[in-house]
Design a protein that fits this description.
7 helices, mainly alpha, 80% helix
């Protein structure tokens, strides 16, 4: 069997064979036959036994010398092999401790990254929640502006920008929701890498515990017993995970480290992407909010100017109505003033028409009275026509005044909606809280 250090280890089977050979060499015959013999046979046997004893003694001495050399050789070999194993255990402990340290450092880093990514997710969720109020405000502004009346219910620039703001908010909500989903996936990846690192660290710790225990063992350690299960070591039949070689062992931990590092890099990119999306969304919404505010102010300026013009026109109309009413009063007075002269002239004309006989002539007085009656009647007709015209003018002025007053009322309501309802409602928006902490 070739070890991780490139040397050839002796098999346990070879040691057992050496022991058997030694036992066979030292074993003595145990089944000698005892029979009755003649004295000569006895003497011959005695001499033979002496010769054999000397021969066996010499052979035993040779065997003892060989055994002593073998014992010293095997003892030295055992001590050398044990020292080599101790060195390899120390190297292995150092290697495993090195990988454990790297894994622990990476584990601490990925735990911190999980914390950072969870904070980034929380900021993104807060940003998403912060879009609810602007959405509600913009929607309410559009609903409030639906209460405008008559000609003021127009699709103006304010409505256009409010609709753009709602579309922008909807798009940002979709974007931030996608960012949160991506962040959840990154957190799951980080958690999987963290679990792999923790499992690897636990294995390394157990391996260190066992190897350090083995390293501390020596021939004088109390409580040691021979392993009664040769199958644990005979022929290197120790159970081994598929592909669990020294190289694969290091590759396994290196792969865990690389996966964790890649997951951390992707998590950092995700955090940067979250912050970028939050900041970009905030900037866009803030610009859009400022644009909507500018459109409101522009519209309010237009409405205020229009109302001011209508107020001025109403004042002029009221003045003109007053003047027309005064003129009508004068015309009616003038018409009434013609009644007296007309009665005098017609009475005179009627009285003179009773003159007798030849006195009934069309003299200058008759012609004058006739002309006077015609002139007064003509004047009355002219005054009546003028009064009718003035009354028509007054009627138009009153109608115009009513329209002006209605339009002013409409403008006041539009101003009240935009200024008191919409702009005051939009002041509740706090775009600063939309940003991540520390920005």
């Amino acid at each position: 069997m070739t070890s991780a250090y490139g040397t050839t280890l002796p098999s346990y089977g070879s040691k057992r064979d050496v022991g058997k050979a030694l036992l066979q060499t030292l074993a003595a015959p145990s089944n000698a036959v005892r029979d009755r013999k003649a004295p000569n046979d006895w003497n011959a046997a005695l001499n033979m036994h002496v010769r054999l004893s000397d021969k066996d003694k010499n052979k035993a001495e040779t065997q003892r010398d060989a055994s002593s050399r073998l014992i010293k050789e095997l003892d030295q070999k055992t001590k050398s092999k044990q020292a080599e194993i101790n060195r390899r255990l120390q190297d292995r402990i150092t290697t495993v401790a090195y990988w454990k340290q790297r894994l622990t450092t990476e584990h601490n880093s990925i735990c911190q990254e999980i914390t950072n990514l969870n904070m980034s997710k929380q900021k993104t969720q807060q940003a998403l929640a912060s879009t609810e109020l602007p959405t509600e405000v913009s929607t309410n502004c559009l609903k409030n502006r639906e209460n405008r009346e008559a000609i003021d219910l127009v699709q103006d620039l304010v409505d256009d920008e409010l609709i753009n703001e709602l579309n922008m908010l909807s798009e940002i909500q979709r974007l931030l929701s996608a960012r949160i989903g991506d962040t959840d996936q990154r957190i799951r990846n980080l958690t999987d890498c963290k679990n792999s690192l923790e499992a690897d660290i636990r294995d390394k710790e157990e391996c260190l515990r066992l190897d350090e225990h083995c390293y501390k063992l020596n021939n004088g350690t109390a409580g040691l017993q021979a392993v009664a299960q040769p199958s644990l070591y005979d022929g290197h039949t120790i159970r081994q995970e598929p592909g669990a070689t020294v190289d694969n062992h290091e590759s396994f931990s290196q792969n865990n480290l690389e996966k964790s590092e890649i997951a951390r890099v992707m998590s950092c990119l995700q955090r940067e992407l979250n912050d970028f999306s939050i900041n970009k969304s905030n900037d866009e919404l803030q610009k859009q909010s400022e644009l909507v505010g500018a459109m409101f102010r522009l519209r309010l300026k237009e409405l205020t100017e229009a109302k001011t013009g209508l107020d001025s026109q109403l004042e002029k109309t009221n003045q003109e109505i007053s003047s027309v009413e005064d003129s009508l009063h004068q015309l009616r007075e003038a018409l009434r003033s013609k009644d007296g002269p007309l009665k005098v002239a017609t009475t005179r004309f009627a009285v003179r028409s009773k003159r007798p006989n030849v006195e009934q002539t069309r003299d200058h007085v008759h012609n004058g009275l006739w002309s006077e009656i015609n002139d007064i009647s003509g004047a009355q007709d002219s005054l009546k026509n003028q009064i009718a015209s003035a009354e028509e003018t007054l009627h138009r002025l009153l109608k115009n005044k009513e329209r002006l007053e209605q339009d002013i009322t409409i403008k006041k309501k539009s101003i009240q909606i935009d200024e008191q309802q919409c702009l005051r409602l939009r002041k509740t928006l706090s775009w600063r809280g939309f940003r991540p902490a520390g920005v």
